Amino acid sequence: MKTFTMDLAGRTLRVDIGRVAAQANGAAFIQYGDTTVLSTATASDKPRDGIDFFPLSVEFEEKTYAVGKIPGGFNKREGKASENAVLTSRVIDRPMRPLFPKDYRNDVTLNNMVMAVDPQCRPELVAMLGAAISTCISDIPFDGPCAMTQMGMIDGELIVNPSQEQWDKGDLKLTVASTREKVIMIEAGANIIPEAKMIEAIYKCHDVNQTIINFIDEMVKECGKPKHEYTSCAIPEELFAKMKEIVPPAEMEEAVFTDEKQVREENIRQITERLEEAFAENEEWLAVLGEAIYQYEKKTVRKMILKDHKRPDGRQLDQIRPLAAEVDIIPRVHGSSMFTRGQTQICDVVTLAPLSEAQKIDGLDAFVTEKRYMHHYNFPAYSVGETKPSRGPGRREIGHGALAERALLPVLPTPEEFPYAIRAVSETFESNGSTSMASTCASCMSLMAAGVPIKAMVAGISCGLVTGDTDDDFVLLTDIQGLEDFFGDMDFKVTGTKEGITAIQMDIKIHGLTRPIVEGAIARCREARFFIMDNCMSKAIAEPRPQVGEYAPKIIQLSIDPEKIGDVVGQRGKTINEIIARCDVKIDITDEGNVSICGTDATKMDEAKRMIEIITTDFEKDQILTGKVVSIKEFGAFIEFAPGKEGMVHISKIAKERIDRVEDVLTLGDTVKVVCLGKDKMGRISFSIKDVQ
After folding, report:
1. Does residue 178 form part of some domain?
2. Are strands 671-679 and 624-633 parallel, antiparallel or unpaired?
3. Contact predicate 557/595, CB 8 Å
4. In a domain, 181, yes or no
5. pLDDT band at residue 20, thresholds of 50, 70 and 90?
6. Residue 279 and residue 290: Cα distance in Å, rounded?
7. Which end is more exposed in the chain, N or C (fewer Cβ atoms within 10 Å of the end residue's Cβ)?
């Protein structure tokens, strides 16, 4: 066993190698502050048969004992990965995947188990570092090291590796991964931060990453295993040469040079049939022909873009595909829109509900227990012309939904300004590149159509990249379609307003980006999102509607004395449940005394408000009230003004003339007006019917 330590942002990072999990290819037992994570890297001995991709699996396991909790529900043990666990796994996967050999087909699993959580040291960061360390010291082929740093910002000051509270409450949530020379991954949520400030934060993370990489180098030098040999799955060069004889490069270029995805796929299908026929007797070549055609097509597209500056659909390098936008396409829902960019089309539907419908979150973060705004993204098979059953959202769907959610969060009104829980659902009707950015545009429009008073319009776009042999040989592509994403080197997504950035997600397939590429992509995305807002979105809907729609629930807010909350709720909820039943409303009350009454009938909502005001207001002399006769006695009648709130009218105060029996004037259930007379000799409140003016 060996222990390594370093100071990282004012806290000690400790890594134990050889202490646990000795049978894994690589294992690191890591503590940052008191946050403890076991990270392991394991690989199979042989490549998986019949696949043309690298089978990497990344897991982030949240153990509730890490925060002193027993899991909720009946099972009382951890089960399905939380949304946070899925998103963390994706953030670890994206920078590390390109650093494994392209021809490596052995199964690899990077497992990160959170065993203790210190709120000052986020477990997600520790797992990211652990995955990199365990892989670097293992015998698994890996072109590392790499490192990751997180950056927060409060009052304009950048904070390296912020605490959980600083992360949740700050204006920036940035994660950056780097190799020695370049940035390899960016993930950000931001409260409308200018591009220059974002670039400053990115490269401050990059600088910190260099100190971590030096630390990893020390561990690899002392504990690293020699990298094992593996069976290469590279395509034989002889096969490529023969393919080019049968299908010359000019023919392949013509096949892929079209703006219709279906036409391109049909062209490639015909080429595939010809090659299968030509190689019918060569089983070895037939087994890898699909991957060979993919690579041939990829090289053709990359050459067209990089050398000839020709895109497959004929667009200019900075040109956005045709745009279309409309709202209110779905009747009766609270808000809807459709955004189309080329062959990418998203329909977004917004639903409004009382704040009590906010999503409850049971995770390792003690500061976030519920989510008021939820964005869900769906990607059915028909959107790409395929057929397969729906099995619920996968990691990709969760990731895309979270990105669009982050994009809109900074412009949402506060619960005090708009007391609703909000759910936006993006349905992918058609997909050919960057549906998450189309989802951002569509959800922005549907929120405005639903009457959500967002602070500014938000749009998103993706920038692609094709690189050559040197760092300064590259081409940036605005609004990449699917083919340019598949065959290109980068998918750089940026969302924001006219004032700044709200979210970034960057995926690459190469070993990093230079600063000119990062700055160029951010600038290109800024220009494109302005174009989308000005020339498309604002023409469909320029600003939020002044009120929610006809079928959306309406909400009345009022404040009461917190000491009166018990009076409104009543014993075992009897009073508030009676109001809810009578008025057909939903009622939420916070500990601070903020009351929200939600319903669809304005008259009934006003009645519920009146009842609550009566319950929480002490009767004053000369106050006139309306109530119902609920009890008759020989000496008078009891009038109910609200559930649990009654007053008594003496028999002498019922009618102007003398009466012998209360029943001669009043009947149970009568609605009457009374005036408060003040307190009687016994300190009780008295009312009169006959003195009402």
Report:
1. no
2. antiparallel
3. yes
4. no
5. very high
6. 12
7. C
474 assigned to some structural domain: yes
One domain for residues 423 and 493: yes
Neighbours of 60 (CB within 10 A): 27
| Count of residues making up the chain | 693
At 110-125, the pLDDT tens digits run 999 999 999 999 999 9
Write the single-letter amino acid at 335.
G
Tokens encoding 651: 């028999």
375 within 8 A of 56, measured Cβ to Cβ? no
How many structural domains comprise the chain? Answer: 5
Based on the domain organization, do 471 and 393 belong to the same domain? yes
User: How far is 56 from 92, CA to CA, in rounded Å?
Assistant: 11
State the pTM of this model. 0.88
Hey, what amino acid is at 423?
A: R
Our CA dihedral for 261, 263, 269, 272, rounded to 10 degrees, sits at -90
Q: CA quadruple 236, 242, 245, 250: dihedral positive or negative?
A: negative
Structure tokens at 639: 């009038």
**Sign of the torsion formed by the C-alpha atoms of 671, 677, 679 and 680:** negative
With beta carbons less than 8 A apart as the criterion, state whether 411 and 497 touch: yes
Claim to verify: residue 426 and residue 296 sit in the same structural domain: no
CB 453 within 8 A of CB 418: yes
Considering the domain boundaries, does residue 228 fall inside one? no
- Residues annotated as binding site for Mg(2+)? 485, 491
Q: The tokens of 255 are what?
A: 């096949």
The binding site comprises: 485, 491
SS3 assignment, position 485? helix
